[in-house]
Known about the structure:
Layout (H helix, E strand, L loop, with lengths): L4 E8 H13 L3 E8 L11 E4 L5 H8 L4 E5 L8 H17 L3 E5 L11 H24 L3 E6 L17 E6 L2 E6 L3 H9 L5 H7 L1 E2 L1
Parallel strand pairs: 1-2, 1-4, 2-3, 4-5, 5-6
Antiparallel strand pairs: 6-7, 7-8, 8-9
Helix pairs in contact: 1-5, 2-3, 3-4
Amino acid sequence: MSRQKTIIFGASVKKLGPLLKEAIKWKHTARAVMYDITQTDNTLRDLDIQYGHMNNKDKIAELAKGFDAVIALHEPVYLQPDDHLRAVKALIEGTKIAGAEKLIVIGHPVNYPVENTLEFYGKWKVILRSQAEALKVLQNKVSLDWYYIHSPRLEPSPVTGRLMLGETILCTSPLGVNNIEKKNYANEVFKLADRKMSARNLDSMLLNI
């Protein structure tokens, strides 16, 4: 049986690091597409590194053609929340055109720490709204086998007043919503991407809410 072919979109090697290491660990035939390709090193010698963005469906389709799964890390930022929605729409259409079987989008800002300030709380609410819009598009218009990894609500503790983000984040798919461990998110993504796994088997492997 041929090796699974997985394409991974993101900003840079630094931000995609955990996902790229999982691609090597799972022995996928993998292509990484990013707009900062200056940080590549020998640990990624088995990967096909390409320059690209997530804002053009035709370019995504061209790069993803022949691949089984599309994985994309696109972290919403509060200053430009609409960029996330545009990227998700382009990923959906590009994946369809390419004929890939699965689309997995990581919309949780895995590279940004939680700050215990009211200013950060305001920024987080903007990020959550951006994720909700992206999720709505996936739920309403997509016939793909899709998964969207996103943030839980973040509220100040009624006891201490501090902002606390737990150890899990959310994974929504047509099957429903599950928790996944934040520290192991990259490994969980590749469980989802594995073409040998049925949707129901994957659902049972995740942490049910």
